[in-house]
Amino acid sequence: MISISVRKQSKYSVSESKLKKELASSLKQSGLISNAKVSIAIIDQKDMLDLSRKYLKDNRLHNVLSFPDKEVKGKFVSPPDKTRYLGEIVICYPMAEKEAKMENKTVEEKVIELAKHGGRHLLGIHHD
């Protein structure tokens, strides 16, 4: 089972159930076969810039960041219930909104796309 928690500011309209379903499906398609937990945070530009400065040492506004548990906390120890915490996906809603408009998508479609992208990073699937 894949457990996904979503934290968002109330002004950001995204169907949590659809987001969870789509991300779980994407993680399975990417090869996840064990029980896992993932957190998603949908935040504003200021908070994304703060994270960018703190963790990436840059001053760029990113649309999505992934924080794999193993990279944040060091060596991973399997919990007794065998459910692995993969990490957190952070999505900048205003950036998703802007990109969705440019790509002729709904904001929800863009947020789901970014969540899937972040999920692949949590699994160690990276791009150039």
What key attributes describe this structure?
128 residues; Collagenase (Catalytic Domain); alpha/beta; four-stranded mixed β-sheet
Please render the helix and strand layout as text.
Elements: E1 2-8, H1 16-29, E2 36-43, H2 45-56, E3 64-68, H3 69-73, E4 84-92, H4 93-102, H5 107-122
Parallel strand pairs: 1-2, 2-4
Antiparallel strand pairs: 3-4
Characterization of the model:
- This protein has 128 residues and is of the alpha/beta class.
- It has one domain: Collagenase (Catalytic Domain) (3-Layer(aba) Sandwich), CATH 3.40.390.
- Helix content is 45%, strand content 23%.
- The chain has a 4-stranded mixed sheet, sandwiched between helices.
- It is globular.
- The termini are far apart.
State the total count of DSSP E strands: 4
Q: Structurally, how many domains make up the residues?
A: 1
The radius of gyration is: 14 Å
Could you say what the CATH topology is called?
Collagenase (Catalytic Domain)
Q: Ends: how far apart?
A: 30 Å
Major β-sheet profile: 4 strands, mixed
Strand content: 15-25%
How are the strands of the largest sheet arranged? 1-2-4-3
Provide the structure class.
Answer: alpha/beta
What is the annotated CATH architecture? Answer: 3-Layer(aba) Sandwich
Shape: globular
Number of helices: 5
Instruction: Please state the average pLDDT score.
Output: 88
> Considering the protein shown, what is the CATH homologous superfamily?
Metalloproteases ("zincins"), catalytic domain
- The helix content is 40-55%
